[in-house]
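Q&A log
Question type: sequence-to-structure
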Amino acid sequence: DDWWIYYMWIAPGYKLVVGYDPDKVTPADVIEYVGLSPNNLTLREGQPFFMLPLMPTREQPMQVCGFRCNVYRPSIAGIDIFGCCDGCNCPRHGCTLGFIANKAGTNGIVSANHCIHGSVCNCFGSCCPYNKYVIQPSPICGGTCPSSVIAHDAITYDFGGGTWYIDAAFAPATQPVQYAVLDEGGVIKPLPSTFRARDPTPGESIVKFGRGVYTFSTRQSTVQGIGAVVTVCCSPSGGLCRQFGDQIVSGPGYISSGDSGSGTYASDLSSAIGLNFAGNIMTGEGIMSRSVLVERYLGISLAVPSVSTSMLPLIAGIAAAVGLGIGIVIGTTAPTR
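Response status: OK
Response body:
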């Protein structure tokens, strides 16, 4: 199990992430096996990627709180959240709400497993699992339990000691939710009615809405790799590491601490591409689970629910009466497992 990560940079800049056993093959062997010439690439040894919840430190300045950490009701993608233990014990961490979703008629939120459930990292040593409540904003930015609870009883897919394919969890909503993203300056952008999950293409332009301390603003990038096998560790200081398969890799400068659980979208907001959960701390390259696999393993839909045309006048009337907009749906308090 002594595996290393290498990056192969292929002109004009796409990369292939390769894992191999250094006791059995050499870097030259790897290049030969994938049919490339040493003249066409440079090879450098990489470090494991790390999960990136926000854990404030004194060593470096961060944008810990800001417009993504205001109170948002209904809940939307791109806002500051975190999970709390049963009994309302809340670790002082922060993550991002990635997507609004529906599971068998129950509306809820999607974020990283290690943000609102905990099994992938054995709960970061906080409480096992800390999946009872999700609060918004996070405890770092003033959220408290139970007054800030927006969802509860998260479900996940646990791959045990094998290869993981998603770091994701779905929590049924206890507050209204809206199929929208939070853009720059607190601007809320509703998602189109045709919004759906899909796989990207190499080089495709993508956008992230997250509360990362160095990428707090909306961030653009491109898809640099699809189907990558990577090692992801729960903490830069060591501890539990997992192998993840079939992942999407972004370009540099895209991810920072606090972006765990944020969603990656097509640049025109037409599609859900991936759920961010890890990255290279030095370069900001991001690792994300494919959105189609998040749907499959959690049994959810990221698509904007269709509304019967015969119901639109009634819904519009109700929305106007209570000051809400179309696209807002009411969460259920019934847990789904």
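Response note: The radius of gyration is 20 Å.
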